[in-house]
Amino acid sequence: MLRGRSLSVTSLSGLPRWEVEELPVEDLLLFEVAWEVTNKVGGIYTVIQTKAKTTADEWGDNYFLIGPYFEHNMKTQVERCEPINDAIRRAVDTMNKHGCQVYFGRWLIEGSPYVVLFDIGSSAWNLDRWKGDLWEACSVGIPYHDREANDMLIFGSLTAWFLKEVTDHADGKHVISQFHEWQAGTGLILSRARKLPIATIFTTHATLLGRYLCAANIDFYNHLDKFDIDKEAGERQIYHRYCMERASVHCAHVFTTVSEITAIEAEHMLKRKPDVVTPNGLSVKKFSAVHEFQNLHATYKARIQDFVRGHFYGHLDFDLEKTLFLFIAGRYEFSNKGADIFLEALSRLNFLLRMHKSDVTVVVFFIMPAKTNNFNVETLKGQAVRKQLWDIAHSVKEKFGKKLYDALLRGEIPDMNNILDRDDVTVMKRAIFSTQRQSLPPVTTHNMIDDSTDPILSTIRRIGLFNNRTDRVKVILHPEFLSSTSPLLPMDYEEFVRGCHLGVFPSYYEPWGYTPAECTVMGIPSVTTNLSGFGCFMQEHVADPTAYGIYIVDRRFQSPDDSCNQLTQFLYGFCKQSRRQRIIQRNRTERLSDLLDWRYLGRYYQHARYLTLSRAFPDKFHMEPTSPPTTEGFKYPRPSSVPPSPSGSQVSSPQSSDVEDEEDERYNEEEEAERDRLNIKSPLSLGRVPRGKKKLHGEYKN
């Protein structure tokens, strides 16, 4: 008989020790199945990639990832090798002998986990037969024209076949398989239909129908219990996909999702309450710069300022030292990602800053990929003009410096009227004339293919944010992901985030929210909402999120106009902070990174595995039922230097030096950081619950 063992985990970064149940990993094989293994499509790729090291450290050579094969990804990300495990080697060899193309190797990311990749195209000839298998298993048919769903069926069928071959030669080892999203779900359905001896977990990172409904500007969360699910899925021609997702949920031994808000959604959309909520983390070590992160902010801010100098040449009548850089980034989902409410709030912010005659300027970047032709000529010209001016200034400086040096060597004070000759003055005048422009600075860096119908550009036209001289809010749409090789803004995403002052992500539909999480671990304040998993997580764990640079907009319990006003007030309050206050806030924000470390959040996944083993193999794993990991008492306190009201942490105006001085006198970074560490109680615990009749996972209303 196999039993879990109690393991005492040492404290990390000053956090207390706590007890968990250790799984007998030497007697288990763990598989994670996802379409985004080595294949970057969305956020699931980040989940798997960042979690890999923590899981690989814990499971060693008994941890495997299963995904699709793409030649380019294989050449650039995977090092091929031979399987050490005999069951894996036999399974790969058997499938290859039957005409499949199965690749095995190590994924070249932190942790170097093993990956098994299936070539979908080489097995497409089995599609009709596998469609029949799926119909017999769960009576779900897939239309011939839905290529994506057909590819997912092939992928799932290969996964089920592979797992059968593994379990046939597992030599007594028990298998746990975790399937991410509906794309991997057919593998779970077929595995259960064929009664394979594996423990299964299904994780949804966002419900399929929920994403569609929110994109249609429906009041989703207040009408969760009123939707006719089958009708809504049918009208959007995704009924077969919805059925695949729902069947996967009900076939799994354990069902998990990434946040409390998505758990509520899943219970209504998929008709099963998640057994465990598994929050998404990050590999914090990747971003940790200890106390250097403030210096990195200054370094990368200077590079963004260079871009702004070029983009606004001829209209650079604002002080860059009093300019704040805000940004929103992610998939181009105008409503779901909150770009609509953000633009409206920027219009109101522009009015407030102008009305109060503020000397603060706000430059806002929209980093959201869209269809483009090429770079905007005017934008490229701006960077060329900036570089030309820099070269001229550098050349004149060299001549000035040489003449000054020679004069000092002769023991003379140079005549400033003669130190620059007529040619130098002429060159500088021509440089000044070259900065004149007849048009306004462009609001986009690229030529958009659908310029007239683009939602962001259409809204900019409606609200009139055209980068006029009188506007205190300037807007730049960069419809392409950032790259260090770009001729316009040569910065990686991480560098760009570190150089900005605030990330704004007022999403309406955001099951987790990696963008604000990445801001947090880099010490950059961010705006999120109580409809995002990240926002709910921070509300639960931080007594005063605003003091720590996490601004949470209420988009669930108030009208859109009230939410927009709240966002506007957050932005206006941020603009009124002094530089000193922003530095203090960034210090606090960076300290929250411990909350998002996979070394802690990975324990939720461990609990899910613990639970699925006890359900799949109850006669072999005599484990008492446990409650999910709890976070009771795990809360960052309000900093002592911040008044009780969240709004009180903002100074009413930049001139209120008395209030600022009072806060500065009370602020001590080391004392506050130490107090945060000491006030955090046991972050996670696998608590016992009394024995009794459990509701089986299939006993739900359908």
Automatic annotation (TrEMBL):
A molecular-function term among this protein's GO annotations: alpha-1,4-glucan glucosyltransferase (UDP-glucose donor) activity
Protein EC: 2.4.1.11
Gene Ontology cellular component list: cytosol
Reported function: Glycogen synthase participates in the glycogen biosynthetic process along with glycogenin and glycogen branching enzyme. Extends the primer composed of a few glucose units formed by glycogenin by adding new glucose units to it. In this context, glycogen synthase transfers the glycosyl residue from UDP-Glc to the non-reducing end of alpha-1,4-glucan. Transfers the glycosyl residue from UDP-Glc to the non-reducing end of alpha-1,4-glucan.
Residues in coiled coil: none
Reactions mediated catalytically: [(1->4)-alpha-D-glucosyl](n) + UDP-alpha-D-glucose = [(1->4)-alpha-D-glucosyl](n+1) + UDP + H(+)
Protein's recorded name: Glycogen [starch] synthase
Keywords: Allosteric enzyme, Glycogen biosynthesis, Glycosyltransferase, Phosphoprotein, Transferase
Family: Belongs to the glycosyltransferase 3 family.
One GO BP: glycogen biosynthetic process
Metabolic or biological pathway, per its Swiss-Prot or TrEMBL entry: Glycan biosynthesis; glycogen biosynthesis
The organism's place on the tree of life at top rank: Eukaryota
CDD domains cross-referenced by the UniProt entry: GT3_GSY2-like
Ranges of compositional bias, category Acidic residues: 658-673
Extent of Low complexity compositional bias: 647-657
Region called Disordered, residue ranges: 619-702
